[in-house]
Design brief:
flat, 14 strands, OB fold (Dihydrolipoamide Acetyltransferase, E2P), alpha+beta
């Protein structure tokens, strides 16, 4: 469930009137060159006022939440194989995560299951799920790595995101979606958006991060662009293409 600006206002209504709140949102949107929607701008404001916690305790998880949690793997379930509705085979496994406040299930699907098979995730591994979504599972509260989520291995202070290199994509920009905000480890905000590029092989969706979200605003729909130094990741059995700070965008 997406957190609306009205829900966020409840966190600071003792600090700002509704009129002040709305005016601050408009100001933030202007500061970010109209890259943000109102809900994201409200999240920035609430964080600025010190009323937003970037890490959610497992004991506070509720179905429908979108949140970031950290925890240590204490159990790893059996890897199960199943037939997907659209054909092909999928994989799933359930882990138990523990922090200092409680435990919950973490469901891993398809490509992420490979981290268990390869031994990169095992008992004692410390994980961080960024922007995961919470639901009520068969065995209680369960967190999943959603479309905007990231799974990070943080054991020994190291972070590992499993990406593969991809060279470049060229084509016509046909869509740029509104940006979303998320929390980084240092408490600052990062930004992410999706674009769609018409290539010789058909339309391709690419996820842009941080400064690349602002860079893409320099290009209009219908312009030919080239994106370099992309990376790909297997998410729920599908390959996703990403452009992070090491990537480049240029006009053709």
């Amino acid at each position: 469930m997406h957190i609306s600006k009205n829900d966020l206002y409840e966190k600071i209504k003792d600090l700002k009137t509704k009129e002040e709140f709305e005016e601050e949102i408009k100001k933030i949107i202007r500061e970010y060159d109209n890259l943000l929607d109102e809900d994201t701008a409200a999240l920035l404001l609430v964080d600025k006022l010190g009323r937003n916690d970037s890490i959610t305790k497992i004991s506070d998880l509720e179905p429908g939440m979108e949140c970031t949690i950290t925890g240590t793997v204490t159990e790893i379930g059996e890897i199960r194989e199943f037939n997907k509705k659209n054909g092909g085979t999928g994989f799933v496994t359930n882990l138990v995560l523990k922090d200092d406040a409680g435990t919950c299930k973490l469901a891993l699907w398809h490509g992420d299951v490979g981290l268990v098979k390869d031994g990169k995730i095992k008992n004692g591994t410390e994980l961080k799920i960024v922007n995961g979504y919470v639901k009520k599972g068969y065995y209680g509260i369960e967190i999943n790595v959603g479309r905007w989520g990231l799974l990070e291995i943080t054991s020994n202070g190291k972070k590992e995101k499993i990406f593969e290199k991809e060279n470049k994509v060229s084509g016509t920009l046909i869509e740029t979606k509104p940006s979303k905000a998320f929390f980084k480890d240092n408490g600052e905000f990062g930004f992410v958006t999706d674009i769609k590029v018409e290539t010789q092989k058909g339309p391709k969706q690419i996820t842009l991060w941080d400064d690349k979200v602002k860079d893409i605003q320099n290009y209009k729909k219908g312009e030919k662009i080239q994106l370099e130094n992309l990376v790909t990741k297997d998410r729920n059995g599908k390959k996703e293409t990403h452009l992070n700070r090491n990537g480049k965008i240029k006009k053709l």
